[in-house]
Amino acid sequence: RFSFQWTRNGLEIPGATKRKYVTTSADAGKRIAVVVTARNANGSTQETAEPITMNPTAGPQVIEPPTVSGTGMPGTMVTVSIGKWSAGGSVSIQWYHGNTPIPHGTAEGTTASWSRRRCRVNADWLGEEIRCEITRSNAKGSTTAMSANSVTVLSGNITPPTVSGSGRPGSMVRVDQGDWSVPGPNTFQWYRDDTPIPQGMGPGETGSTNPKRCRIDPAWSGQEIRCEITRKYKRKAGTEKVMSANSVTVQ
User: Fold this and answer.
1) Angstrom distance (rounded) from CA 154 to CA 176
2) With left for phi above 0 and alpha for psi between -120 and 50, is residue 44 left, alpha or beta?
3) In the Cβ-directed half-sphere of 147, how many Cα atoms lie within 13 Å?
4) What distance in Å separates the CA atoms of residue 182 and residue 161, rounded to the nearest whole number?
5) Residue 209 and residue 142: Cα distance in Å, rounded?
6) Nearest of 150, 125, 122, 2 to residue 65 by alpha carbon
7) pLDDT digits (tens, 9 = 90+) for 126-179
8) The pTM of the whole model exceeds 0.85
9) Percent of the chain at pLDDT above 90?
């Protein structure tokens, strides 16, 4: 069992024995701390938290910084908890991918959420860290705090695409799209070595109306056939390109 006693400059504050303490004008310029006592059948132990000094002229002070949570998968949400503050006041929220501010809104490249406390992960931010900055303000002023942690934007591709075929001129190479963590339509771009192969039935084209297949042209002898998949994530969550993990050599 735990009990709490808040102190002001080392002296107990009468009645301040709850887990949460709301500061008053009497705390301005004073060192505020809490003594936590843990008890069980074997006895008790006390620990005193590091004191914080309340600025008499500044706005709300940070007691526990904001934190963010989420999987980091494209199309999913990252949510912010604003943390604990020494006083109330209005809250403003600014999201970041890397060091770039994310505009609030529902358009492509914004937080893509009606709620300012949530930000939809965009695939275009792959590998970047998503953080959230909270500003709390009242009549005495304002204080800004960045989230203590971040969420890394991950690839939505679980297993990459693969291609298969005999490599003989006139035969087809087919692509398996792989596995993806979130839904969205795919588009396909075939390559012979580093040269894109146009989709169509004409000379030098894929020779197929099905974008998941490419017919081998005899003129491509010795070249490697690959396929790049572009996943367009739903809910305005950007796009991600993934090249096939293997290739088919033209005989």
Assistant:
1) 21
2) beta
3) 23
4) 15
5) 61
6) 150
7) 999 999 999 999 988 888 999 999 999 999 999 999 999 999 999 999 999 999
8) no
9) 79
212's tokens: 């998941």
pLDDT at site 141? 83
Band (pLDDT 50/70/90 cuts) for residue 56 is low
Residue 167: burial class (beta carbons within 10 Å; 0-12, 13-18, 19+): middle
Per the structure block, which two tokens stand in for 6?
């808040």
Question: Does pLDDT of 24 surpass 90?
Answer: no
**What is the Cα 2 distance to its own chain's centre?**
35
d(CA 35, CA 52): 13
Alpha carbons 75 and 184: distance in angstroms, whole number? 10
- The residue type at 28: A
Give residues with Cβ within 8 angstroms of 210, minimum separation 6: none
Angle formed at CA 77 by CA 72 and CA 78, multiple of 5 degrees: 70
In order, the DSSP letters of the chain are -EEEEEEETTEEPTT--SS-----GGGTTSEEEEEEEEEETTEEEEEEPPPEEPPSSSS--EEE--EEE----TT-EEEEE--EESS--EEEEEEEETTEEEPPSSSTTS---SSTTEEE--GGGTTPEEEEEEEEEETTEEEEEE-SS-EE---SEEE--EEE----TT-EEEEE--EESS---EEEEEEETTEEEPSSSSTTS---SSTTEEEPPGGGTTPEEEEEEEEE-TTT--EEEEE-S--EE--
Among the listed residues 125, 227, 236, the one whose alpha carbon sits nearest the alpha carbon of residue 184: 236
